[in-house]
Amino acid sequence: SIGALARESVPDDFTISSPENANLFKTTLENENIPYTEKRTEVIFMKVNMENIIKSGINSSSTMTLPVVSEKDVEGVKLSEKETLLTGYNDALKGIMSFKNSGYVEIKGKHTMISQRFIGIDRKFVISTAFTKSSLPSVIVDDKVFRQLKKDIDPSIQNDSSIYIGVSLQDEDDSIKANKIFKRTEFDNNGVNLSRMEMVASQKQMMGIIMFVVGFLGLTFLITSGCILYFKQMDE
């Protein structure tokens, strides 16, 4: 559904690109007495060799650049130092890439490489599409391992922003008012700021345009076919 797709792209009601923009938006929400919760997730990008766990799809010998987050920033996840969990797996990705139930992955830093035991993949999206390049899954590791990897990142493959900031409303009835505030807030141009409500509206509009074009072309085809048959009969 459109709502499910929007939730995959924007896991929280709003995604803000920087702490400065987040503070600006939160201050406006507080002035309007709109209660909210904030989630901040540090994100680093690492090259991950998943040859051992890819069952089918893309070239399994390839190494992909994936976002990596700490378990401490993901609710309900607890890992050992040797375990890795993938998350953010939808039907679109399943159609081009399938994974084994177990195996190991190699996470490569600028100077070192660590081998981790793959324990599975989850459908839950924990960061926005601004971080998940080409909708590839995210990697969750133990917090100690995350801090170790953070010291060995390759600057050339990092995102412009290293922090995912999600703002969720405590009362769904405030959605329309909060979205109006989001639209009129003058964010700086650094990074991508997203509203799930705006994304839903955009996707519905796009779907409407597609349906109109398809319907128009279908009607045009019927009228054209009818005219051809009519003139053919008149000639006879």
Name the features.
six-stranded mixed β-barrel; single chain; alpha+beta; 236 residues; 12 strands; four-stranded antiparallel sheet; 35% helix
What does this structure look like?
The chain is α+β, with helices and mostly antiparallel strands and 236 residues long. Helix content is 35%, strand content 27%. The protein has six helices and twelve strands. The chain has helices at 2-9, 19-31, 91-94, 143-150, 175-184, 196-235; strands at 14-16, 36-42, 44-49, 54-56, 63-70, 83-87, 98-99, 103-108, 113-122, 138-141, 163-169, 194-195. Strands 3-5-10-6-9-8 form a six-stranded mixed barrel. Strand 8 (103-108) and strand 9 (113-122) form a beta hairpin. Helix 1 (2-9) packs across helix 6. The protein starts with a helix and ends with a helix. 28% of the residues are buried. The model has no long low-confidence stretch (mean pLDDT 84).
The strand count comes to 12
Helix content: 25-40%
SSE sequence, one letter per element? HEHEEEEEHEEEEHEHEH
Radius of gyration: 23 Å
Task: Record the strand order, biggest sheet.
Answer: 3-5-10-6-9-8
How widely separated are the two ends? 51 Å
Give the percentage of residues in beta strands.
Answer: 25-35%
* Weakly predicted, low-confidence segments: none
Tally of DSSP helical segments = 6
What is the average per-residue confidence, as pLDDT, rounded to a whole number?
Answer: 84
Give the overall silhouette.
Answer: flat
